[in-house]
Structures are given as C-alpha cells and as structure tokens.
Write a structure and sequence with these properties.
The complex is a heterodimer of chains A (about 130) and B (about 260). Chain A is mainly alpha-helical. Chain A has a single domain (about 5-120), classed as NADH:ubiquinone/plastoquinone oxidoreductase, chain 3 (Methane Monooxygenase Hydroxylase, Chain G, domain 1, Up-down Bundle). Helix content of chain A is about 70%, strand content about 0%. Chain A has helices spanning about 5-10, 10-35, 40-45, 65-120. Chain A is flat, with a radius of gyration of 25 Å. Chain B is mainly α and about 260 residues long. Among the domains of chain B are: about 1-75, Four Helix Bundle (Hemerythrin (Met), subunit A) (Up-down Bundle), CATH 1.20.120.1200; about 195-255, no CATH class. Chain B has a two-stranded antiparallel sheet with strand order 1-2. In chain B, a hairpin with a 5-residue loop joins β1 (about 210-215) and β2. In chain B, α1 (about 1-20) packs antiparallel against α2, α2 (about 25-45) packs antiparallel against α3 (about 50-75) and α5 (about 125-130) packs across α6. The longest helix of chain B is centred in the middle third of the chain and has 28 residues, at about 90-115. Chain B is elongated, with a radius of gyration of 33 Å.
C-alpha cells in the first residue's frame, strides 16, 4: 500500500464532499440571484398563528442541563462501540480469549448502564 | 501525500486560529470541527485509518455535540467575561504554551537530526502490512499486550457515566401527574371542563399572543400560552376592550343608562 492506492480509496469521499459543497454554494447563490427581493412588514411576519420570533429570553436562551446528561451518556457508550470495531474485525483470530476479554469489558460497562437505567437517567420526563 | 499534508495542515491551523479569534462561541465550535476533520484526514493519509475514523466518529461527532450542549447550557448569547475566575489562570496558560512550544521544538529538532543522519520515518505501512491491515494491527495490540489497559478503560467509562449522573441528573421529588389525572382534574372543574378559551380576539398580526374575551367582556388570561406569558411578549388588549366598550355604549343609550345607574 503505497500512497497512491490509499488516497484513491478515499476518492469517493472527496468527490462526495466536493459535490455537497458545490450543491450548498449553488443553492445559496442561485437563491440570491433568482429570488425576487420585495420585502415588507407583512412578508416578514409569522404566517397567521405562528409565534413571533421574540427576542431571546434573559440569560441567552439557556437549555436545561438534561441535554448534557444525554450527551455524556452517548459519549460513554460511543467509546464502548469504538472498542467493538477492532474486536469485530479480528474476532475469529482472537478466538476464545478475545471473546472472554470482550464479555468482561461489556459486563463492566453494563454496570454503568444498569446504574443509569435504575436511577432514571434514560427517562426524559423523570 | 505531500499535497494532502499541505492542504489539511493549512486548513487545520486556520481552523485553530478561527476558533481562538471568533467572537461567538458557536462559531468557535464550528472552526474546531474543521480542525478535527482535517486532523482525521491527516491520520488517514498516514495509514492510521482506524484513528482517522474514530477521530470523526468520537471527536467531530460526540465531543463536538457535547461542546455545543455546554454552550447551550451556558447560554449562546452570554457575553465573555474577562475576569479571572480561576486564580493563576493566566500564569498557568502562559506556562502551558511555553511547555507546548518546547515540545514542538524538540520534535522538530529530533526529526531534522534524524533526517540529517538519513533515518527516514517508516510510518505505519510496515506495521499495517504485518497484520494485514491497520484495524487488525490495533486489535492485536489492544487485545494482546495492552489487554489490562483495555479492561481498565471499562472502569473509566463507569466513572464517566457516574460523574455525568451525579452532576446532571436530578431526581424528581414529587410525582408527575399523568394524562389520566390531568384529564380528570380538568373535567372536575366546571370552568375548564369544556377546554380553555382559544386566544385571538383583537388579533392583528399574531393570534396566539392576544387573549380571548369571555362572554361577559372580561379578558381570559388563561387563553394565552404560558411560554409567551413568561417571556412577557403578550399583547395587552385592555385599550382595545375599552374602545369597543365605549363604542357599544354610544350606539346603545339604554344600556349606557343601565350602566350609569
């Protein structure tokens, strides 16, 4: 694996990135060029019964800390998944030892899962 | 390879500068995401595919989301404070920058010295070829030589989950009334049995911020959404009510006399 084939394997991703970037630029530019620009007060108002986008409430529109808990728990179990990738790729070569290792690892992380579950960390309205 | 390095190195440094110099915290976070993605491309171009993909999945995916949540908790619009809240913060920052500078200079020095002695860096190509791939090589080390560190990582994950629960979870002290209870409570009270009055009388542009009028002409405060009342952006209709009332009385002298007496 010299440099050239390794790079060409990622060429589709590069092309995908360029296409999405080009689409975004095209949409913004085309919208700005072709759209009519007739602004008035009624046009900018929320239609019929929509809530007016009022100025941010005091404190800069702060969100509840519940979101942080969700994000933290997501990262914890995301890291667990990261360790599963190399194991899944080579698990027939690692044989029984690898399986025992992984069961031990998952069982330990399951303790955290059980704790979070029992304390109601997974329930939004709790 | 050289082209990938120059493009991604320049972009990641630009992302770092953008992060430091942005006035808005959310913009800083987006600049940081640019840096992280470019680092991932650099890792992949150095044959460290696993590290590159994990960089995207964990850092640009999960950690970036955590940063944005923290920004939203603190408040996106909250202004920067220039007051030093941690004692010795500035001194520590300067020390950290100097330490990093020494580290980078040592690295560059060692690299140039090796190159002068014709020691060329081999990269991961050989190691990857030995094991049949980058992920396989990492698996062999992770589940072989470093198995203890791997198992201890699970304890670290428990600690992280526990810390998140202790810091951010709040046990509810009172029970939340369910749908059935709320429904029964509403039906038990004749005033709300038929539902709350809908807002919108005297609405001119935004119906929800304008309260309803009850049949006797009084203003129904409970027809307004609670969120708008909290924000204080509801429309005061007392003036309109007074004007309409006066017009009604003027057109009907008999009713006006009744009201007088």
């Amino acid at each position: 694996m010299r440099g050239a084939p390794a790079v060409s394997a990622y060429l589709p991703i590069l092309v995908l990135g360029l296409v999405s970037f080009g689409f975004a630029v095209f949409s913004v530019v085309a919208g700005a060029l072709t759209g009519p620009k007739r602004y008035n007060r009624a046009r900018l108002a929320a239609y019929e019964c929509g809530i007016e986008p009022t100025p941010q409430p005091a404190g800069g529109g702060r969100f509840p800390v519940k979101y942080y808990l969700t994000a933290m728990l997501f990262i914890v179990f995301d890291i667990e998944i990261v360790f599963l990738y190399p194991w899944a790729v080579t698990f027939d070569r690692l044989a029984l030892f690898g399986l025992i290792e992984m069961v031990l690892f998952i069982a330990t992380v399951l303790v955290a899962y059980a704790y979070v579950w029992r304390r109601g960390g997974l329930e939004w309205d709790n | 390879m050289i082209a990938v390095f120059w493009v991604c190195a320049v972009l990641s440094v630009a992302g770092g500068f953008g992060m430091v110099f942005s006035r808005k915290a959310v913009h800083s976070a987006l600049w940081l995401a640019l840096t992280m993605i470019n680092l991932a491309v650099l890792y992949v171009s150095q044959q460290a595919e696993f590290l590159g993909i994990v960089q995207v999945v964990v850092y640009t995916g999960a950690v970036m989301m955590l940063f944005l949540f923290v920004l939203m908790i603190v408040g996106v619009d909250s202004s920067d404070s220039l007051v030093e809240t941690i004692r010795g913060h500035r001194l520590a920052s300067v020390a950290a920058v100097l330490a990093l500078l020494v580290l980078v200079l040592t690295m560059i020095n060692q690299a140039t010295q090796s190159l002068a002695l014709n020691i060329v860096p081999t990269g991961l190509e050989g190691a990857n070829a030995d094991e049949g791939g980058n992920v396989q090589g990492i698996a062999k080390l992770l589940f072989g030589r470093y198995v203890f560190a791997f198992e201890v990582t699970s304890a670290l994950l428990i600690t992280a989950a526990l810390g998140a629960m202790v810091l951010a979870h709040r046990d509810r002290l009172t029970r939340v009334p369910g749908q059935e209870e709320l429904s029964r409570e509403r039906l038990a009270d004749p005033a709300t049995a038929a539902g709350l009055p809908a807002p919108g009388v005297y609405a001119r542009h935004n119906a929800v911020d304008t309260p309803a009028l009850l049949p006797d002409g009084s203003i129904a405060e409970n027809s307004l959404p609670g969120a708008l009342v909290l924000r204080g952006t509801t429309h005061d209709v007392r003036e309109e009510v007074a004007v309409t009332r006066a017009a009604e009385l003027a057109s009907d002298p008999k009713q006006a006399q009744e009201e007088q007496s």
